[in-house]
Amino acid sequence: MSDPRLVPAAAPWAEDMRTFGVTGTNGKTSTTTMLAAIVRAAGQRVFAATTLDYSLDGVPLPVERSWQGFLAAAEQSRAAGARHAAVEITSQSLARGYAKRWRFDWSVFTNLSPDHFKSHGSWEHYLASKAQLFVHTSPGGAAILNARDPAALLLDQVTPADVRRVWYGYMSRGPCLMEHDLEAVSVRTSVDGTALTLAASPLAEALGGALQVAYVGEVFAENALAAAAAALSAGLPAAAVRAGLASCPVVPGRFEVLGRSPVAVVDYAHTPDALERTCATARALAGEGRVIVVFGAGGDTDAGKREPMGEAVGRAADIAVLTTDNPRREEPRQIAAHLRAGLTRGGRARIVEEADRLLAIGLALELAQPGDVVVVAGKGHESGQTIGDETLPFSDRAVVQELLGLEADDGAA
C-alpha cells in the first residue's frame, strides 16, 4: 500500500465500493437516507447502513446488527451490483475503530451538540471520536463540513491536506465561520415538506438554485445541503441530486407528520439542540395555533442535558406534557424534576405531568384543537420502552395512529 493512511478494503469483494460516511449528533440518519436516494436517482444500486437497518435500494436486509452483519449486508449488496454505500456512523462506532475497518471516500459532518458525553467521558473525547472519520478519509476524497458549527473548524484541522473540503450551511445554525460552497438563503416549510433557495455559487448553479425535500423543518434543509454537497463531490449528476432529494421518503419518526387537524407529529428529538429546532418548526407550522409537546428524557444517561432540554421546550411550547421516555433503572420522578426545572426556566409553556406515556399522548391530542401542532418527541421510530431491565413494546407512531383512527403501518422508509 503506497499511502499508509489509506484504509484497506474490509474484504477483496469491497475493493471497488465507494462509501459516504455520515457522522454528527443529529441528522445522521436523514442525511444518510437522502444520500442513498440520490444514488438511486442516478440509476445506481446502493447499500445503506443506518441506526434503523441495513438496506439495498431502500429494501431492508435481514441480517443482525453487528460488524459481521454489516459485512454480510454489504457483500450481498455488492453481489447485487451496488458500488456505492451510504453509512451512518455513531461516535461509539468510531471510538471502536470503525473508520479503520471500512474505507470512507466522502465524510460528512452534520453538527455537534452536548449528547452521549456519558459514554465518552468528556466533550473532547466525544469530538475526538467523530474526528476519526475525517482523519481516515481516503486520499483524494472529500470532507463535507457544516460551515456554521464551530466543531467543523476542529475537524478541518485534523483532515489530511489531500482531502478536499466542501462547506455547506444555513443561517439557523449560527454565524458563518467559513465561506460556503453550498448555502441556503431561505427555507420555507409546510406540512408537505421543505423548499430551499440557494445562494449563488457553482454548486448552486448546477442545482438550478433550489432544492425540495418531503422532510419538514429547517434542520432537514441543512441535511439536504450536506447530502447534495457530498453527492456533487462524488461526481453524481446534479439532476439526480434534485430528483433524489425530492423523492426521498421521510425517515420514520423524523418530524413525521401523521395527522393534519390538528397536526400531529412524531419526532426523535432528544437533545436540547434537536428539541429547540423541532419546536421552532412546530411553531412555524402552527401560525396562530398552539404548540403542544409531549416529552421526557432517558434514564441512566447524561443528566446534564435534561434542564436544557426542558428549557428549550419551555421557551417554545404553549403546553408541555411531561412524561417518561426510557427511564431504565433511574427513578422517573428524578428525571422529571430535572426537566421541570428547565421547563420553569423556559417560562412560556404550561406544564402538565402524566407519567404514563400512552396516557400523556392521549392527553395532548385531547387538548389540541384544529390549527394546533402536537409533537410527540424523544423516541421517534423506536418500538419499545425500557423500564428497569425490561423493554416493553411501545411505539409513539402506533399510538398516535391508533388515537387518530389512522391505518397503522410498519414504519418502513
Automatic annotation (TrEMBL):
The places in or outside the cell where this protein is found are: Cytoplasm
What pathway is this protein a component of?
Cell wall biogenesis; peptidoglycan biosynthesis
- Write out the GO MF terms: acid-amino acid ligase activity; ATP binding
Output the Gene Ontology cellular-component terms. cytoplasm
**Which keywords does this chain's UniProt record carry?**
Cell cycle, Cell division, Cell shape, Cell wall biogenesis/degradation, Peptidoglycan synthesis
Single GO biological process annotation from the record: regulation of cell shape
Highest taxon, organism lineage: Bacteria
Major subcellular site: cytoplasm
State one Pfam family annotation. Answer: Mur_ligase_C
Q: Which residues form the Mur ligase C-terminal domain?
A: 253-380
Write out the similarity annotation: Belongs to the MurCDEF family. MurE subfamily.
Write the protein's name: UDP-N-acetylmuramyl-tripeptide synthetase
Q: What is the lineage of its organism?
A: Bacteria, Pseudomonadati, Myxococcota, Polyangia, Nannocystales
Q: Which gene encodes it?
A: murE
